[in-house]
């Protein structure tokens, strides 16, 4: 259990008691350092990053971010997400402990990037570490771990319902004249923009065996270097009008793009094994960052509610009952969301990612949708400025909104949860049969005619 004054430290105060109890001294130290980093190096520098981006033409990583990445690495704040399986490279945090760090990182949109803990890098690094051979790891994984380059994940397609990845149609064929060369043709949406010089590789999921009777064995995952001839970016996709530079979201064309067959990860037809291993922790990280970001929106609403210069009808905005109610409701929702995600992280720690499936889906369904609603309320309390660039609220809302779709739409997760829940009806029916049996026994004992009773024991 945390002792005073740690329990009241601003980095730790909102962490539920059952989690505080499980944090190692090392984790407490990391959480406090990440808090200090975000509060002093990142949040105050947000306008400077925007100014540097505007000056550099948007597609170069601002020098301030490069400087912070080098500094974070030196201070041992790099790659905090890495699980223990990474040996000496891992800080050794559990999912639960790292989640507490991720929430703090979420307070500034790009803070995670300064610590090499951002999406899609974290998922890509875990994927490469888990499924690449030694040679591939040296070539593709190590530069990412060292923060020398960055990567993108490319699965979604404009002409397919990509939440059902068995439909992915981008084709990989072997060159008939050179079986050691793969030829790729198709169109992809998303995956960071190749216009950014820091980006070097794409992890592509595409169809290599469309006639395989097993739809889960038709796809392969391959590495496509960004400078591959025949691979081009058509445009950057804006998200609710934001270009999300300098990372962006590209739309891509593969036109007879050729890569060596040695770029296949794990083996032909094994993309689904890989996809299974990739998503659990990444979804939890997104959710915790969203909670951190929403806490910040909530703080802005509190500032506005108590601003003595803003007094409609001579009263502070926070003096109106409707706003007092609103603030209470936002607080309750935020604390509930944190419990849900930390429970998912802990379930993964104790029982593994597969057993955590329900808790991960629960987080992915509840957090982005509720965060977007809370931020919307914060904008409402802020008034007209809340919808402008005077506040980060519109960007925060956009982030929450897009996570309802990114990494799988919430409807698909609800569908899965609902289907699993329907399977629980069998045992419930058996239990109800037992109620009936016992009810008839009791009717006999107490001389009640069960034929004339309405309903019986339900
Ligand atoms: C900001 C952002 C970043 C992204 N980054 C990446 C990236 O880096 N790499 C990448 O490959 N992709 C990325 N994506 C794409 C994202 O993963 C896909 O958009 C998502 O998986 C859904 O696929 P889709 O767009 O083809 O929608 P579809 O699969 O066509 O689904 C559309 C809608 O159909 C409904 N639906 C689908 N399935 C079900 C179901 N089972 N039950 C009920 N309704 C359902 C839902 O309403 C759903 O929203 C990103 C998306 C966003 C918004």
Short summary of the structure?
Keywords: FAD, Flavoprotein, Oxidoreductase. The protein has 458 residues and is α+β, with helices and mostly antiparallel strands.
Notes on the structure:
By secondary structure, the protein is an alpha+beta fold. It folds into four domains: 6-118, Acyl-CoA dehydrogenase/oxidase, N-terminal domain (Butyryl-Coa Dehydrogenase, subunit A, domain 1), CATH 1.10.540.10; 150-265, Butyryl-CoA Dehydrogenase, subunit A, domain 2; 274-421, Up-down Bundle (Butyryl-CoA Dehydrogenase, subunit A, domain 3), CATH 1.20.140; 424-458. It contains 14 helices and seven strands. The chain has helices at residues 17-20, 25-42, 46-56, 63-74, 95-105, 111-114, 121-131, 134-145, 271-305, 321-351, 357-382, 393-403, 410-422, 425-446, and strands at residues 150-154, 171-175, 178-189, 199-207, 219-225, 231-236, 250-260. The strands form two sheets. A four-stranded antiparallel beta sheet has the order 2-3-7-6, with no helix packed on it. Strands 1-4-5 form a three-stranded mixed beta sheet. The chain is globular and about 85 Å long. It starts with 16 loop residues before the first helix and ends in a 12-residue tail after the last helix. The protein binds flavin-adenine dinucleotide (FAD). Flavin-adenine dinucleotide (FAD) binds at residues 120, 153-156, 161-163, 190-191, 239, 249, 402, 405-409, 411-412, 415.
